[in-house]
Design a protein that fits this description.
Chain lengths: 314, 199, 113, 325
């Protein structure tokens, strides 16, 4: 019998390398989202590429602030927690041989992590003891109630088709046809969910410009930087999870699997961020009904179609 | 337990201590938000403990559901506790003596049960995929549970909505339910509410 | 588990160095205490309060509905094996729930403001 | 190294732009100048590098400007341009001030770490003179940090929740100069509002330098609304409409109509913008009508509605002159 502790230690170098690569991937994806966002807003490509570094420098130079009777603990947890959630999501994605955090329940874990964002954004709005922040935090929960069920049913569709909740198995099951192609509604609902937990695009009302950036209203300096980075990273992480779920994982000609995964994630992040930059922010109380009464039944119907096709064995 | 390694033991006890400490914090902190999220952390740690007991699906579902429920519960706690939810000293304990007695008795009964009952040795091995086993159980042997849950949930929705909305479609639209909703939907109502304060 | 530990360590190190760089560049350590933003006015009262959540009806519907996901994930794994019966069963179940959602919509549970 | 980082950090400072009473033209020019430079305005004082108050502040609003100034985290710079022609040099000055290390260090050294309590204290002192209460003990308990707790108010849903009094204006970005709308909020819904107008210290005349085509402010209002919706690209187009072609105007108008149809914009706001931009001047609205317009609305909707109606508000027209003058 081997010593489990020694066993864990033997895996340390591989784990360390994997962790560094995952962190690097999150940063690259977040930056891609930022660049694409800039292009969508009408900036030139070089200016968009320089935007993130310049803003990082600006915000790192800026002082920190806290507000009267703020709940600083909860406020900071909310802000600094977003980026780690994105990193954990990326760690679930099978790249090449295996994921950094492999497991038979990858799909459910992805779901659990996106729910953690509920808590974080609300805390971010709550902690500052500010009207704008409160409005933003509460708007987020309202939207979350709307986008979460469609997102969950969208996550279930590939799992039905692959008869597994393991992201690696789901990816491998798409050798003939990507799930995005034959379950488009689930794919769209998933992407809406990604926009939701990245708080951007049509679902950006919680940080809406018309309430002084809502949940972000009282943030400055590094505290704001990590939240902005976290939102871009969450968009990138959401796109990366879509790769094994809907875009065939690492399958592709010529290049190694790992490269395909990263490439697909980058492309989807760019496309998603561009769309988020172009679509108008919709008002929360206008979004609830369509999310519940149009998107939700459609996704359930999509699941039905998938289940019937799977059972009938086609 | 098949592999009772030191690492797993340590992690388990870590989770257990976090769960208990944060559970206790619920009654110590002075803010509804802190109390609710302390409870959420406690539940997440419980989920971690379940994972270490190789109940992977149960573990992840505890994390998923409890974070979600706590996020919504925080909103209710803030709304319905009859005092400022963050800036006043508060107590989450009611009728101290009874509560303390009841919890102590429960703890002793359950705790002694866990320690004193001669647990049977495990016969056979757990299913290689507990999630799949659970799925089969729900759809085959425990179908009745599933059948019963549906109507119960519908009843919950209907009762919940009926109790929580003070104004239903008749208040919004009058008798003519087919007319287009106004923008904003409840305008007249709000203004009446506003005037009521002026009284 | 070891990967999780390494990730946590890396993230902590990253956050720490970000703070350090920030402190060095801003040439200050302590945050300044300010009033919450209110158009140049001193707020009349603390914003943290019993916040009126207009969408509580929607949250009730959600809380009842999301319990369903407990069954959905294990079901997804076995449905291909179990066949038609399982599909019919689950979607009748979902249809009943969606009917409740439709009713809730008619009652105005998803409208507010 | 530090120098290079500072240059990068101040390449495009974020300016919090506020309109003083009667400062409409200076503010509009400021936004155009920011567009030309590719600088983005700051959405709140919290993350702003600089505070720019367009126009001349009347004395009663001096304290409000100081509160805003105290909310900037620093390094910080402030300016109050009073003429359209001085806007570019003002922005240059702001950036130079942000880059001046000695000056910034001095500013921070002269700054208290607690910029909140003194305002609260002076504010409550003012109240005490009139209220004359002997509830000091209660005050200590009920007023953490010197601010009182929100009090409950009955709501249309038959519940008692806390109501917040929250001012929009006098000094708010993308908000008509001089308007102070004190709202009573239940959650994020405005149930009541009070209007106050602050007058400019001296009447400001429209600038002589052209732009007569937008003196009624329709395109300016459209740009503000688009910017509040987070659509900076279209907002830039709207701001540039006057000098550029009518096709651009059509594009912006179509965009606004689409946003209205999709419900991204309150219908009333969309309609009034459409009327203003399609060459017929909508009727002015009084303060009472303004209150009527915003009550029952979501806080965000209130911002959009006020922005759309800005050129039609009696106070704005009085302060900055209209086409008829």
């Amino acid at each position: 019998m081997t010593d489990p502790l020694a066993d864990q230690l033997a895996r340390l170098p591989a784990a360390a390398l994997g962790a560094v690569l995952a962190l690097g991937l999150v940063l690259v994806l977040a930056w891609t989202a930022s660049v694409s966002r800039g292009v969508a807003a009408g900036r030139a490509v070089p200016a968009s590429m320089a935007h993130a570094p310049a803003e990082a420098a600006r915000l790192l130079r800026q002082g920190r602030r806290t507000t009267l009777s703020a709940d600083r603990l909860l406020w900071r947890v909310g802000g600094w927690g977003l980026f780690p959630v994105a990193v954990l999501l990326i760690a679930l994605v099978p790249v090449g041989e295996t994921a950094l955090l492999p497991g038979s329940l990858g799909v459910v874990w992805a779901n659990a992590l996106d729910v953690v964002v509920w808590a974080l954004v609300w805390l971010l709005g709550w902690g500052a003891n500010s009207v704008a922040g409160l409005v933003g935090g509460y708007r987020f929960l309202a939207l979350a109630l709307g986008y979460e069920l469609p997102l969950m049913f969208a996550l279930v569709a590939p799992a039905i088709a692959a008869s597994s909740l393991d992201l690696a198995v789901v990816a491998d099951a798409q050798s003939s046809l990507w799930y995005a192609v034959w379950m488009p509604v689930a794919f769209v609902a998933y992407l809406v969910g990604v926009l939701g937990f990245a708080v951007s695009g049509p679902l950006a009302a919680p940080v809406g410009s018309e309430v002084s950036d809502g949940a972000l209203a009282e943030l400055s300096g590094p505290d704001l930087l990590v939240v902005r980075a976290g939102r871009h990273a969450l968009m990138g992480a959401g796109a990366a999870i879509a790769v094994p779920l809907f875009l065939g994982g690492g399958s592709g000609p010529w290049l190694p699997d790992a490269v395909w995964v990263v490439l697909k994630a980058l492309l989807l992040t760019g496309a998603l961020a561009w769309a988020a930059g172009r679509l108008p922010t919709l008002r929360t109380h206008q979004l609830m009904e369509p999310l519940w009464t149009i998107l939700l039944p459609l996704v359930v119907l999509q699941d039905l179609v998938v289940a019937v096709l799977v059972v009938s064995g086609s | 337990m098949t592999d009772s390694s030191l690492v797993v033991d340590l992690a388990f006890w870590g989770c257990a201590v976090v769960a208990v400490v944060f559970g206790a914090l619920v009654f110590v902190v002075d803010s509804m938000a802190r109390a609710t999220y302390a409870l959420a952390v406690s539940f997440v740690a419980t989920g971690g403990a379940l994972l270490l007991m190789q109940q992977s699906y149960l573990g992840v579902i505890v994390v998923l559901m409890m974070v979600m429920e706590m996020a919504v519960m925080a909103v209710y706690m803030v709304m319905f506790m009859g005092m400022n939810p963050a800036l006043m000293p508060m107590s989450m304990v009611h009728s101290h003596r009874t509560a303390l007695g009841a919890s102590l008795v429960t703890f002793v009964v359950l705790g002694s049960g866990a320690v004193l009952v001669p647990w049977p040795e495990r016969r056979g091995a757990p299913s290689p995929d507990v999630t799949e086993a659970l799925g089969r159980a729900i759809m085959e042997s425990h179908m009745l549970v599933m059948m019963a849950v549906g109507p119960v949930m519908v009843a919950t929705i209907v009762v919940g909505v009926a109790l929580s909305t003070a104004r239903t479609r008749y208040d919004r639209l009058g008798d003519d339910l087919d007319q287009t909703p106004t923008d904003p939907p409840l305008r007249g109502e709000t203004q009446r509410g506003g005037r009521r304060r002026d009284r | 588990m070891i990967a999780l530990a390494v990730l946590a360590l890396l993230l902590a190190a990253g956050a720490f160095s970000l703070r350090a760089v920030g402190t060095a560049l801003a040439e200050t350590r302590s945050p300044v205490l300010v009033l919450p933003v209110a158009s140049g006015r001193v707020p009349e009262q603390h914003a943290l309060s019993r916040y009126h959540v207009r969408w509580y009806a929607a949250s009730v519907v959600f809380l009842a509905f999301d319990v369903e996901m407990l069954f959905m994930y294990p079901w997804a794994v076995v449905v291909a094996d179990l066949g038609t019966g399982a599909v019919v069963e689950m979607f009748v179940f979902l249809a009943i729930l969606l009917a409740a959602v439709a009713w809730a919509r008619r009652e105005g549970a998803f409208r507010w403001a | 190294m530090r120098g290079r980082v500072v240059t990068l950090a101040t390449a495009r400072p974020r300016v919090y732009v506020v309109e003083a009473p009667g400062g409409r033209y200076v503010r509009a020019e400021t936004h155009r100048e920011l567009d030309r430079r590719g600088w983005q305005p700051a959405p709140s004082p919290a993350s702003a590098d600089a505070l720019l108050i367009a126009g001349t502040l009347p004395d009663p609003l001096r304290a409000a400007a100081d509160v805003l100034w105290s909310q900037l985290p620093g390094p910080r710079a402030r300016a109050e341009p009073t003429a359209v022609s001085s806007v570019p040099s003002t922005l240059d000055g702001l950036r130079a001030c942000l880059r001046d290390r000695a000056g910034q260090l001095a500013d921070r050294r002269g700054r208290e770490l607690d910029e909140a309590t003194r305002w609260v204290r002076s504010d409550s002192a003012r109240h005490d003179e009139t209220d004359h209460d002997d509830m000091d003990h209660d005050d200590m308990e009920m007023a953490p940090g010197g601010l009182v707790l929100a009090q409950g108010a009955p709501d249309r849903d038959g519940l008692e929740m806390d109501a917040l009094r929250h001012p929009l204006g006098p000094l708010l970005d993308r908000w008509p100069g001089g308007l102070e709308l004190v709202t009573t909020l239940h959650g994020d819904v405005v149930v009541e509002a009070e209007v106050t107008w602050w007058e400019p210290p001296h009447p400001t005349a429209p600038p002589q330098t052209g732009r007569a085509d937008d003196l009624a402010g329709g395109w300016d209002a459209a740009a503000t609304v688009l910017s509040l919706l987070g659509d900076e690209r279209q907002a830039r187009l709207a701001r540039s409409v006057a000098p550029s072609s009518p096709e651009v105007g059509d594009r912006v108008l179509r965009r606004l109509d689409r946003l209205t149809r999709r419900g991204a914009l309150p219908r009333t706001a969309g309609e009034v913008l459409h009327t203003a931009l399609a060459d017929s001047v909508p009727a002015l609205i009084s303060d009472d009508e303004l209150v009527e317009l915003v009550s029952g609305r979501d806080l965000g909707d209130v911002r959009l509605l006020v922005a759309a109606h800005a050129p039609l508000l009696q106070g704005v027209v009085d302060a900055s002159g209209s086409l008829d003058d």
